Amino acid sequence: MEQLELPSIDYGALLPMLILFGAACTGVLVEVLFPRRLRNGVQLGLSLLAVVAALIAVVMERGTRTITIGGAVAVDGPTLFLQGAILVLGGVSLLLIGERTIEKGGAFVSQAAVTVGSKKDMEQAGGRPGSTEVYPLTTFALGGMTLFVAANDLLTMFVALEVFSLPLYLLCALARRRRLLSQEAALKYFLLGSYASAFFLFGVAFLYGFAGGIQLEDVHTAVANPTQSQVLLYAGLGLVSIGLLFKAALAPFHVWTPDVYQGAPTPVTAFMAACTKVAAFGALLRVLYVAFEGVRWDFQPVLGVIAVLTMFVGAVLAVTQTDLKRLLAYSSIANAGYLMVGVLALNDEGLSSTMFYLVAYGFSVLAAFAIISLVRDADGEATHLSRWAGIGRKSPLLAATFTFVLLAFAGIPLTSGFTSKFAVFGAAVEGGQTWLVIFGVITSMLLAFPYLRVVVLMWLSEPGESTPAVSIPGFLTSAVLGIGVIVTLALGVAPSPLIELTRQAADFVR
Amino acid sequence: MSDFPFLSILTLLPLVGAAVVAFIPRTRAELAKLVALGWSLVVLVLSIFMWVAFSIDGDRFQFHESYPWIPAWGVNFTFAADGIALVMLMLIAVLFPIVILASWHDVDQSTRSAPAYFALLLTFEFTMIGVFAAADVFLFYVFFEVMLIPMYFIIGSFGSGQKQYAAVKFFLYSLVGGLFMLAAVIGLWVVGGQTFDFAELAANAASLDTNTARWLFLGFFVAFAIKAPFFPFHTWLPDSGGAAPAGAAALLVGVMDKVGTFGILRYCLSLFPEASRWFAPAALILAVIGIIYAALLAVGQNDLKRLVSYTSIAHFGFIGIGIFAFTTQAGTGAVLYMVNHGLATGLLFIVVGMFVARRGSALVSDFGGAGKLVPVLAGVLFFAGLASLALPGTAPFVSEFLVLIGTFSTNKPIAVIATLGIILAAAYVLWMIQRTTQGTLNPALTEMPAMSKDLTLREKVVVAPLIAMLLVFGFYPKPITDVINPAVEATMADVGKTDPAPTAVADGKVGG
């Protein structure tokens, strides 16, 4: 009987994830132990505290470059940077999720299981406090995301994928208004997400067959000296990519995005748009750069076509949208395409510029959804474009803020949107992918049109009868707006510190 | 050489002014106007000091300043001005106070806030100065794009007629051009050794791969051709000029469109000499088509502001052939034309704006015999029209003459066809003046009290300096040409063209 050797565990390196999972479990207990009226404050405080503590842990570990816990987790530059990004963006999203003053009871329904339209449902619509389970769910999702970007073997990656996806499916279904739409969105997301997970797992099986191991390093070694059929490798690479591309919302795996963005409660949409993107691209970067570096010339054209397709789908369909949340969803799809351009540069510059893009885009998109949550009428948020006509007269500050964010999305200089686009395009040209940049530029032109249309509506149209009132933002939403706009401007005017940070963090351990 | 940081202060000054004006409440519109006017005068005074400090025999680029911005990408806040940029900066500094004074009552009836309009004008001045003062390609691109935003809101919020359509069209056209340029800027950065410094890039210009350089040249050229605008990218200008307030339209064609021709001179020619020579025939043909085509369209316009916009496109054709003729004479003529066209068309737009403000309509058919009611104003319109068609004795004549002489020595057919444009110019200007101020008095005009008010003191102060400058530089352009000449010579040396030997034409042996 051989003595079982336990793997050594570097607890310091795992601390951010441990803190988040611990806080999430504590959050579940809080639901049981605290009376209803205290829960919201306690839960919000607990999750924010967890995020801050985890962020401090990440900062303390900033020099760590190690593979620990038996090769399951790699803590290196991109891991720490992306974990930090997820935590900062997640913390800001939590402020939006915690907003309770704009709408009576908040953006979340108190009991999601009540049949829509029933008597009980009518009662709870009248301002019963929203459910507080959203906080532990969000914290679980954050923990899963931080593990996802650190996963060094494909099974850990799969587990992390599920850990952050399942809470998101639930969160989507919790909107207080338009509950049918919200539930439908959650169901769609759940079904398609399950398919994607199954694809991912199937791909892992193929790769295991090809490499005889599931660690990214094993795959890398097997790619260099193959002992099995290449068919296994390409099938595995394709299927694993599909799972990741789904999460990152790249065409043709993007179809869930508009429905889910529209149906989910706006704070959750903001959370998904900012953090899920970071997590999905973090994992994509790791898989492509660490495991499949040896076949990069084989997947580059295929993923390049996907990137071009994504940019076109996002840009062209954004033009036709009449609902702001759907418009931003398509804009987010197009941005996934631009991010892919950075990923496919396949050089250090590509890695750092993609990370820069993720952070910059996350802050802008948080600000955008914060603004959308403020423009409301008796039926909740007024997201139809026509309702925003002339809002610049009624509330110039809000319209000016939104204009600034839209200009950032359009990539006008002096905003983060420009610096980040410049970074990924520059990296791609350096990596010899000029064709991607040309398509990127063409789609940017298309995409400018829908953004501009919203600006025209806000400023140049006369306010109509149906222009809704703008809520006075609560303290939390104001904070999100302020942070989002300031960061968007700062990264446009003085991007140097973040560029330096991403360059220092651009080293994977294998 | 002076060490005073002229250019950065000159750039930032209007931005600070815009911030100050923006915070003046709507109810104190008069104060906002005064502050804006005073501020633009301070900019003018500073630019005059700069003009004096510029040494004609000195380096090509003077007032050089550089501050690190994004070291990771090799981007710096680098400012420097050669003679071409200097005269353009002077033109901006001169035109802005005049336009602000001319726009005094333009937005009084608007539902929008008047201080916002003047804040936008000052913001626009900031971007304009920045774009001409930048000596870093990245910085130039930033200003090139940001200048759209104030103009977009000026047209969209304070314009008339199809203002929304015009504003969106303006923005999208320019943005499309800008994005082509962005692709080229990125490409240039990658092949040019990861630097954006104009001087370094110009020094390495010859080492670029021929094909790459041609693609990059085209990226830049398309952006500038849309901005200038050259045929066939000109369709946004009549819409924008027709919809913008008269003062803003004067700036649009007087200053902003010069960024296009300036960009071709500074960036296309110096950074891609071989590609410029390769593309020159096509550019010349486009420019000539623009001269004839726009002039023909101008003849048929019934909207005064659109008409002036079309005349402007025709003039840009002249500037285009002056640039691509590749002689110092034609190049100097082109740059001089950029200045003179700013003065002449600026004056024309402002005067047309005065007519439109009195009549409440910009249609030629709504006027007729207006000279009987407002003789002085009609006289000023007549003068502006004559300056615009380059009558000898007015400043544009000198530049048009130089362009044609210079072009004639290298490319006779182009010069001959362009000369037809002069005849057409006479047609559209004189016909417009005849239909508006001469002939029988339109009875509708007599019923309008505003139509019988001749020039006020404010309006006289607006037009006087422009008329004076057009006359002075018509007879004595030397102060300007002395500054322009060395810079144009340096640019032509970059392109690798030396002036052809004097031919029989210069000796006057050709009859005519």
Short description:
The complex is a heterodimer of chains A (510) and B (512). Chain A has 510 residues and is mostly helical.
| Total helical elements of chain A | 20
Beta-strand residue percentage of chain B: under 5%
Give the chain pair forming the largest contact, with residue counts. Answer: A-B, 32 and 31 residues
Topology order of chain B in helix (H) and strand (E) letters: HHEEHHHHHHHHHHHHHHHHHHH
Could you name the ranges of chain B where pLDDT drops below 50 across 5 or more consecutive residues?
Answer: 503-512
Q: In terms of per-residue confidence, which ranges of chain A show pLDDT below 50 for 5 or more consecutive residues?
A: none
Spatial shape of chain A: globular
Main-sheet strand order of chain B equals: 1-2
Instruction: Enumerate the strands of the largest sheet of chain A in spatial order, edge to edge or round the barrel.
Output: 4-3-5
- The averaged pLDDT of chain A comes out at 90
In helices, the fraction of residues of chain B equals over 70%
Q: What is the general shape of chain B?
A: globular
Instruction: Provide a count of the helices of chain B.
Output: 21
User: Number of DSSP strands of chain B?
Assistant: 2
Question: Roughly what percent helix of chain A?
Answer: over 70%
Class based on secondary structure composition and strand pairing of chain A: mainly alpha
- Sheet having the most strands of chain A: 3 strands, antiparallel
Q: Give the N-terminus to C-terminus distance of chain B in angstroms.
A: 46 Å
User: Care to count the β-strands of chain A?
Assistant: 5
